[in-house]
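queue> holo job accepted (adenosine-5'-triphosphate)
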Amino acid sequence: MRLKGFTAMLRYFTRHRWLLGLFLCTIVVEVAYAVASPLSLQYLVDDAFAPKNVRVFLIIFAVLIGGGVLHIAASLLGDYSLGKLSGEGIRQLRSELFDHVQKQSLPFYERYRVGDLVTRFSSDMASIERVVRASFPLLLKELLSVLLGLAMLFSIEWKLTLAVLAGSALMVVGPRLLQGRAEAVHASYKEAQERFSNTIDEMVKGHRTIKGLHLQRRFRERAGSQLRELFAFGLKQHMLNSLMERLPLTALLILNGVMIGFGGYLIFQDEITIGGFMAFFTLFLSVGQSGSNLSFLFPSLIESGVSFRRIGDILEARPDVPEAAKPVELPASFGSIRMDRVTFGYSAEADQLRDVSLKVAAGSYVAFVGPSGSGKSTALQLLSRFYDPRQGAVSIDGHDLRTVSEASLRKLAAPVAQDTFLFNTTIRDNLLLGGADRTEADMVEAAKRANIHDVIAGWPEGYDTPVRHEGGSLSGGERQRLAIARALLRKPKLLLLDEVTSALDPATEADINALLLRLRGAHTIIAVTHRLASVVNADTIYVFRDGAIAESGTHDELLQRNGLYRSLWEKQRGFHLSQDGLHATVDVDRLAKLAVFEGIEPSLLRDVASLFSTETCKEGEAIVREGEEGNKFYMIVRGKFEVAKLVPGKGENRVAVLQDGDHFGEIALLQNIPRTATVRALVPSVVLSVRREAFHRLTEEHPQMLAALERTLRQRI
Ligand SMILES: Nc1ncnc2c1ncn2[C@@H]1O[C@H](COP(=O)(O)OP(=O)(O)OP(=O)(O)O)[C@@H](O)[C@H]1O
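queue> job finished
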């Protein structure tokens, strides 16, 4: 059992020694009074009432009143010290948990989903709070009452005490037998709660996609089955808890019978006085009550044990990318950043980067390009130190990033990702985030440089416009430009850009590319992109293939080399897109390069080119669905699509990613067969498509074209 959460709590308590001491003293006073008052019955009956001795009665009465006043004072002090102690403890545990989660690196956030963490902060913390404020103090009180009460009972009549103690074992054995099962059921209930929280999280975050793809029913069914699961575990938990609570009470009833029978016998034998028996009986009832209270506490203690363990799991998680003990503070500027023979894998099973070495000099503009999944973004993540290499090193001016302080690295280098996260606050706060030394003028200048100022100024509330749904209320282009403005505002020397223009229309993309060209020199820019047209001006282009660098050089050098870059370039060229991104065309010589149109004369290809029409796709939109009849051939002008196949019992499995210049669905030109996979846009995309019917009209006029096409496609089916 991981006790980190529990020991952290104890540590907070011991930091407030005097409060803890005061609280323990008040408990002792309260319990002593509660145990001693039944004992007074023995003296009242035997020494005051039976002999009618008023003096003894008055003395006992005065002692009882005095003790009562002391008891009330101790309770008030106890409540105060407990309130302060537990409040502080909970506050510190919450903030330690918060800090700890914040310190974690990316793999941690990939391991835990939002719901898993939210449940720890909400329901686990609430159950710990309940225990610390109520159950734990009660446990102490009742334990002490039982121990003191038993000592008193022994002093009154040891044989009777032994008899009832033997019976009391029943009260403890029952709950213990059930404890293991109760713990397991409680843990299952919490996991079911987590699954449901994650569904709510996805439903809220993905509400657009859910509505867009009409997935409400699927989500309703998922939530329905999770709620049924919650109900089943909840019922089990309820029944086990009730059983654990009832068992000791039943045992107590049996014990009462034993005590009255055996006690009566002892009175008749003159082994105990009537007052002694009354005191014994009252005290035993009070000890029994405390014992049964203890058993009532078990469920909440078990529940908190699970919560302590779950919070302990988080507190024990060590950051995968830790800060060095004595980190090097990087200066405000740098000379070069390098990767030396870097090998890295997200998991132990596979390497996503293999033996990658590269050097980027300050002030240069460097691009990482290559097919999808080749490791470009991964390399950028390592340069941002979101992960550490498995082998080799990433360094700035000779300082291994593992040895430098995170704060100084973030000051120097600003990453901008393709999925921009904006906080639910105003545009101004999103831009100024944490930069207390940034002025309004700095902010406006950064927004102007990122070409977003005019847009913001046009909104009724300007920079005070609130952002909703983590940026979902803004267009992809607006989000992207805000992210760039936010990065520029921090005045970083190194900009690490991951596909920042992937969601933009051609006009905005051209603006951003022009901006990058203006920034070069003053800033070092490393940009990951799959769109080669945007990097022709880069100082160095690194071409990635299967996690390694296949080639590098300038655009012209790489074209001359006739390697991977050249083939990617050939694939992407020949398309034309209007500035608003709504109308696309393809050149005849680009069509001629497709295997599917091999052997078709250029004059006919001109007619084919004119048959294509432009389609735009939203992020998440499926343009081809597995199993549906296909009647269109597609070419991607710009964008990114996943190709996914249904695996029975497991859902969809991504088998490929297609990008600018790729094509799919050519079989549909020839015959009507169901699609073998679903093709879904990963970013807003533009495609050119041609329908079989339109194509057939052309092939009817030119049968030689159909013959050529059939020849090629038959070879591929
Ligand atoms: N967080 C992650 N956990 C596990 N595997 C990952 C993770 N991120 C990326 N990968 C895998 O690592 C490989 C390289 O991915 P990476 O994103 O670096 O490629 P890329 O060249 O940038 O491709 P793209 O242009 O599609 O983003 C891919 O196989 C990808 O599935």
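queue> The pocket of adenosine-5'-triphosphate is lined by residues 110, 346, 352, 370, 372-378, 528, 530, 544, 657 (CB under 6 Å).
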